[in-house]
Design goal:
A hairpin with a 2-residue loop joins β2 and β3. The termini are close together. The strands form 4 sheets. A 6-stranded parallel β-sheet has the order 5-6-4-1-7-8, with helices on both faces. A 5-stranded parallel β-sheet has the order 10-9-14-15-16, with helices on both faces. The protein has a 3-stranded antiparallel β-sheet with strand order 12-11-13. The model has no long low-confidence stretch (mean pLDDT about 95). The longest helix is centred in the first third of the chain and has 15 residues. It is of the alpha/beta class and about 400 residues long. The protein folds into 2 domains: about 170 residues, Rossmann fold, CATH 3.40.50; about 160 residues, Rossmann fold (3-Layer(aba) Sandwich), CATH 3.40.50.1260. It is built from 13 helices and 16 strands. About 35% of the residues lie in helices and about 15% in strands. It binds 3-phosphoglyceric acid. The site of 3-phosphoglyceric acid (3PG) has 8 residues, from loops. Monomer. Belongs to the phosphoglycerate kinase family. It is found in: Cytoplasm.
Length: about 400
């Protein structure tokens, strides 16, 4: 693909699609990872003398309606604090924007435009007409074929990848295409069903696939152990069995926890009990892997040369069920493997256990990160490749 960093942007109208869809609680941004990651791109465009326009979606609003909770205002304000250049939010931009060199114009939520999600051609052409160069830098939204990610790239005079998108593709490619071995993937989170494809595709490339969180419960059940009242997808037990066998057949392994931390209720003050995986009672819920399992996984991670991490292995937001995820975090931090972490909950864990600077690459993608791991084509990247031909 064409790269923004290789282009002359002096005096050009440059429209940058970022993914600034950040988590917000009580009117405050709770993780600015995506905003921080977009800064080098915006600064580079300014340095190159471009007239900079930035667009992003926020949340999943109803098209045609803009309410305060969906507004890009607080994100524009946040950018204004971080950049030396003045930042201005515009809500009417589809018919043209007046913009001075040296300022940054942020568009209101693109998902409030009718036709955005359907990748409408008319809307895509309107975006395209606003610019001389379209830059897609939104890795987090690269799995969506929408007007601001895909359609606009089709019709813009020039369409290229921004430094963030290019960097993500390079780092993920490095981990997956020709990984240094042993390669270990950690897939946690609550449900097998949402991660079945990623488990499937990773189990064929990695040497060890570590499952955690609710996902591990289904695997524990697949080895005929009791899981009590834990989150467990009965209907996927055969799939879990098949994945375990498939990994064995390829000389790999999916280690199932040997001990767990349980509670009687899902609550911040629930009492935690550590027990062998054989001793889980009927009214127990498994909320974390136990210390013996954590130690084993830490050993596995110590020898790894490539690590891919998506999803915590326990309910780490409650401290008494966080030791497993903390042990994994520490092991990744101490390992000299090329490590990649991605996904909202994973980044929250990375933050909580202070290993941000110890992970080789932190991806800004949630769904896009998973789809990349699944080996799927990302439509917003595919169109850039097509344009580069
Ligand atoms: C994300 O947060 O994963 C991206 O911003 C994409 O959001 P979406 O799932 O609403 O398309």
């Amino acid at each position: 693909v064409l790269r923004m960093s290789d282009l002359d942007l002096k005096g050009k109208r440059v429209l940058i699609r970022e993914d600034l869809n950040v988590p917000v609680k009580d009117g405050k941004i709770t993780s600015d990872v995506r905003i921080q990651a977009s800064l080098p791109t915006i600064k580079l465009a300014l340095e190159k003398g471009a007239k900079v326009m930035v667009m992003s979606h926020r949340g999943r609003p109803t098209e045609g309606v803009l309410t305060e909770k969906d507004s890009m205002q607080l994100i524009a304000d946040y950018l204004d604090d971080l950049l030396d250049a003045p930042v201005r939010l515009v809500s009417e931009y589809l018919d043209g924007v007046d913009i001075e060199q040296g300022e940054v114009v942020v568009f209101e939520n693109v998902r409030c435009n009718v036709g955005e999600k359907a990748n409408d051609e008319r809307l895509s052409k309107m975006y395209a007409e606003l610019c001389d160069v379209f830059v897609n830098d939104a890795f987090g939204t690269a799995h969506r074929a929408q007007a601001s990610t895909h359609g606009v790239a089709k019709f813009a005079p020039i369409a290229c990848a921004g430094p963030l998108l290019a960097g993500e593709l390079e780092a993920l490619g490095k981990a997956l295409d020709n990984p240094a071995r042993p390669m270990v993937a950690i897939v946690g989170g609550s449900k097998v069903s949402t991660k079945l494809t990623v488990l499937e595709s990773l189990s064929t490339v990695v040497d060890q696939l570590i499952v955690g969180g609710g996902i591990a419960n289904t695997f524990i059940a697949a080895t005929d152990k009791p899981v009590g009242k834990s989150l467990c997808e009965e209907d996927l037990i055969p799939e879990a069995k098949r994945l375990i066998e498939q990994a064995h057949a390829k000389g790999g392994e999916i280690p199932v926890p040997v001990d767990v931390v349980t509670g009687k209720e899902f609550a911040e003050d629930a009492a935690a009990e550590t027990k062998s995986v054989d001793e889980v009672a009927e009214d127990d819920m498994i909320f974390d892997i136990g210390p013996q399992s954590a130690e084993h996984l830490a050993e596995v991670l110590k020898d790894a040369k490539t690590i891919v991490w998506n999803g915590p292995v326990g309910v780490f937001e409650f401290d008494q069920f966080g030791a497993g995820t903390e042990a994994i975090s520490k092991a990744i931090a101490e390992s000299d493997a090329f490590s990649i972490a991605g996904g909202g909950d994973t980044l929250a864990a990375v933050d909580k256990y202070g290993i941000k600077d110890k992970v080789s690459y932190i991806s800004t993608g949630g769904g896009a990160f998973l789809e990349f791991l699944e080996g799927k084509e990302l439509p917003a990247v595919a169109i850039l490749e097509e344009r580069a031909k």
